[in-house]
């Protein structure tokens, strides 16, 4: 996670070093919040005065609870961590973020939410999340 985080942030090191900088990070498959925590740690090491607003969504209730607890311990706004399926119920649909890090749910299919995903893809086309198209195989990582 640390390598991925540092690669994503690397191009912005100069801007991230400025006093009072505020950035946002999103993980649509947040799990227990590992990428969100890594993002906070990376930014804090670079600039202790910087602020990183964290946002995430997680399908598994137990992982979601752990993520919220971790964010609470770290002083983050826990209302930005949502419970639900990102593919069928995006709970932050109009929010934009400075960074997005995710570990797609490998081995998970999206058959249960196929109708919602296909409906959104046909309704919104290139203006939606699935503009480039949908995968042939019903495996969730291909949708991210």
Automatic annotation (TrEMBL):
The keyword Chaperone does not apply. The keyword Methyltransferase applies. Residues 23-115 form the DNA methylase adenine-specific domain. It catalyses: a 2'-deoxyadenosine in DNA + S-adenosyl-L-methionine = an N(6)-methyl-2'-deoxyadenosine in DNA + S-adenosyl-L-homocysteine + H(+). One of its GO terms (molecular function) is site-specific DNA-methyltransferase (adenine-specific) activity. It holds the Pfam family N6_Mtase. It comes from the Bacteria. Its EC number is 2.1.1.72. GO terms for biological process: DNA restriction-modification system; methylation. Keywords: Methyltransferase, Restriction system, S-adenosyl-L-methionine, Transferase. It is an enzyme of class 2 (transferase). InterPro entries: DNA_Adenine_Mtase, DNA_methylase_A-5, DNA_methylase_N6_adenine_CS, SAM-dependent_MTases_sf. PANTHER family: SLR6095 PROTEIN, TYPE I RESTRICTION ENZYME MJAVIII METHYLASE SUBUNIT. Belongs to the N(4)/N(6)-methyltransferase family. This is site-specific DNA-methyltransferase (adenine-specific).
């Amino acid at each position: 996670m640390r390598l991925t985080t540092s690669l994503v942030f690397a191009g912005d090191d100069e801007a991230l070093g400025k006093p009072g900088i505020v950035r946002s990070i999103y993980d649509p498959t947040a799990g227990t919040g590992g990428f969100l925590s890594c993002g906070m740690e990376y930014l804090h090491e670079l600039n202790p005065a910087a602020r990183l607003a964290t946002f995430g969504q997680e399908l598994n209730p137990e992982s979601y609870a752990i993520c919220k607890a971790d964010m609470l311990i770290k002083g983050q706004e826990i209302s930005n961590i949502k419970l639900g399926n990102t593919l069928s119920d995006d709970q932050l649909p109009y929010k934009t973020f400075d960074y997005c890090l995710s570990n797609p749910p490998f081995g998970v299919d999206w058959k249960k939410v196929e109708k919602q995903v296909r409906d959104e893809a046909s309704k919104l086309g290139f203006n939606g999340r699935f503009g480039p198209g949908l995968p042939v195989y019903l495996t969730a990582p291909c949708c991210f």
